[in-house]
Amino acid sequence: MKTVNLRKIIELICSLVLAGVILYWLYKDFPFSQVSETLKHGVRWDWMAGSLLFGIIPQILRGVRWRMALEPLGEKPSYRNCISAVYMSFAASLVIPRIGEISRCATLKKVEGISFPKSLGTVVTERIIDSLIVLLILFITFICEIPVFYRFFKTIGFTPDQFFEKFSIAGITISVICLALIIGGFFYILLKLKAFNKFHDVFVKFSQGFASVRKVNNRYLFLFYSICIWICYFLHFYLAFYAFDFTTHLGIHAGLLAFCMITIAVLVPTPNGAGPWHFAVKVVLMQFGISIGNAILFALIVHALQTLLVIVLGVYGYLTLTKPATNKQTL
């Protein structure tokens, strides 16, 4: 247990250091007095409010979609608890990156008694569906904006030819063999473990949760929610363009390209993508003629407001779940 906790602490420290280094590099010469002036006189708060609204809707839809996935398993938690658990999961990821999925499953187990492996299986399935949707968005955007993508990666010192030239056929073959041996060795160890039967029971429950989506009452509605979630995420970012004079002229293709880049950037394990998110926004906006000062100002304000929204929703979710009257209520 101490080893696990130590590893988590080290991961958290590395995550914070990485975010801090990138943010320091981006903002070391930035006049922060400009932020307060812009917040007072340079932000159209009607558009920003619309942007933030589309940050709330996808979390609600995630909670509703999650309950749909749990229902075929015979589990019927309240919509309110599912949504509040989602709120808390995003807030938890601000503290420890990538812990959100585990957090919301543990929360629902505590307040509703839902099997943790089953709920985790449904969450993994949701993530796979979300990943497929994101890959489709990335593919379409990439095809439409190949020159801009190339300029982006060239700006950060990385192009496809630089990547592939580092690997030979022999190197790739050896890598594949090593990966296969690692996977094979992992399963061999599992078979030898005395606790394998217990692991098998957990795996069965996880598999049930993973396969539950095939049995949802309305697959088309489930898919509709999944698509709407990502449309809302896009609008959450894109509508912020209209809140600033220097980005209001940017079209939807610029917003889509920037959205794709920040979606890739947040894969770097920092709190809410801090650092990589700012860097990706800066580089993309500069590709469309925005000055470096305005680009990083936009990134700083928008990311800060989005993070504040996650915190507020997380606190609301926590307060909702700690009220005994709501724990067994089915809405």
Structure description:
- The protein has helices spanning 2-27, 33-41, 45-70, 79-95, 100-112, 116-144, 146-155, 160-164, 169-192, 196-211, 219-238, 252-265, 276-287, 292-321, 324-327.
- By secondary structure, the chain is an all-alpha fold.
- It has one domain (29-324).
Using the alpha-carbon principal axes, give the shape: globular
Task: Tell me, rounded to a whole number, the average pLDDT.
Answer: 80
Instruction: Write down the domain tally.
Output: 1
In percent terms, what proportion of residues is strand?
Answer: under 5%
Judged by helices, strands and strand pairing, the structural class is mainly alpha
Largest sheet: none
How many helices? The count is: 15
The whole-angstrom Rg is 22 Å
Helix residue percentage: over 70%
Straight-line distance between termini: 38 Å
Give me the count of strands.
Answer: 0
- What letter string, H or E per element, gives the SSE order? HHHHHHHHHHHHHHH
Low-confidence stretches: 193-200, 325-331
Summarize the topology:
Elements: H1 2-27, H2 33-41, H3 45-70, H4 79-95, H5 100-112, H6 116-144, H7 146-155, H8 160-164, H9 169-192, H10 196-211, H11 219-238, H12 252-265, H13 276-287, H14 292-321, H15 324-327
